[in-house]
Amino acid sequence: MEISVVVPIYNEEGNIPQMYERLTKVLKEICSSYEIIFVNDFSKDNSLSIIKDLSKKDNSVQYVSFSRNFGHQVAVSAGLDYSKGDAVAIIDGDLQDPPELIKEMYAKYKEGYKVVYAKRSARKGVNIFKKAAYKLFYRILDKLTDVKIPLDTGDFRLIDRVIINHLKQMPERNKFLRGQIAWIGYKQTCVEYVRDPRFSGKTGYSFSKLMKLAIDGITGFSSRPLKFASNMGIVVSVFSFCIIVYALISHYLLHTPPLRGWTSVIISVSFIGGVQLITIGIIGEYISRINNDVRKRPLYIVEESSGEENKSF
């Protein structure tokens, strides 16, 4: 198998037929053996039925269907587990990422690159607020993480089998694949493209899911938030010590009454309490990651697939 294409699917019934047609056309041009793996993340529409029909008509179409919604990153991980190709392309099912770009990515791969990721030079159909939020996220992530994750890139990329073998050795449950792939290293390059608006349907990535992905990226590849919490504790301690010194000097040397009253007490308590809650929250995120890994539950459960059924990983 030369190329596998992993397509995570969540309520994409309006996009699947065109995605299949465009992918098939590209793959037939660049290789003689390929497979398309649709990973159904417990869609509520007719996505699974459409995928099954395609699988019956075309042996190169495979599918994996989860027992519940496990999330985009887990769906991609499942596709990588089931893939057999020497090279594997990851592309979302909403057609915002053009399948035709795989041809250029595969050409770069043939030059010896182990990872070829797609970098967004522009985004169509996205409002100014979202564009600013995306740019801010990638740049904050770049500043905070110890691993240099390429700016303005998603999961749309083509990777070598050796990368997948390394990914399978990473047991963490809070997946942030673009960070893991960057951490693995090897020879990597990019191709630029303009991201199209969604072809059909609504995005499955809500603001809360994007925030979770951002937190997973930061906590999975940086300890700086913990250092920030420690520094905040030092700042508050110094501030409190200065207030105590000021109160003592005012009372015993200057013979003036120190700050007192309801306002000063509430401000001090609110400030210190806020710092404590922020610190506890940061520590809690890291403990949550440890807890998820220690429990060692399956990353996902497969209800049915074009191969075997009822498997968990």
Largest sheet geometry: 9 strands, mixed
Spans of 5+ residues with little confidence (pLDDT < 50)? none
Overall 3D geometry? elongated
Helix and strand pattern: EHEHEHEHEHEHHEHHHEE
Number of helices: 10
Determine the structural class based on helices, strands and strand pairing.
alpha/beta
Helix content: 40-55%
Termini separation comes to 23 Å
Total count of strands: 9
Residue-averaged pLDDT: 81
Q: What Rg is obtained from the alpha carbons, in whole angstroms?
A: 25 Å
Q: Main sheet: which strands, in order across?
A: 7-5-6-4-1-2-3-8-9
How much strand content do the residues show? Answer: 15-25%
Topology, element by element:
Elements: E1 3-9, H1 16-30, E2 34-40, H2 47-57, E3 61-66, H3 72-82, E4 87-90, H4 101-110, E5 115-123, H5 128-144, E6 153-160, H6 161-167, H7 177-184, E7 188-195, H8 207-221, H9 224-252, H10 262-295, E8 301-305, E9 311-312
Parallel strand pairs: 1-2, 1-4, 2-3, 5-7
Antiparallel strand pairs: 3-8, 4-6, 5-6, 8-9
Helix pairs in contact: 9-10
Note down, in words, how this protein is organized:
By secondary structure, the chain is α/β, with parallel strands linked by helices. Helices cover 50% and strands 18% of the residues. The chain is built from ten helices and nine strands. The protein has helices at residues 16-30, 47-57, 72-82, 101-110, 128-144, 161-167, 177-184, 207-221, 224-252, 262-295; strands spanning 3-9, 34-40, 61-66, 87-90, 115-123, 153-160, 188-195, 301-305, 311-312. It has a nine-stranded mixed beta sheet, sandwiched between helices. It is elongated and about 90 Å long. It starts with a strand and ends with a strand. The mean pLDDT is 81.
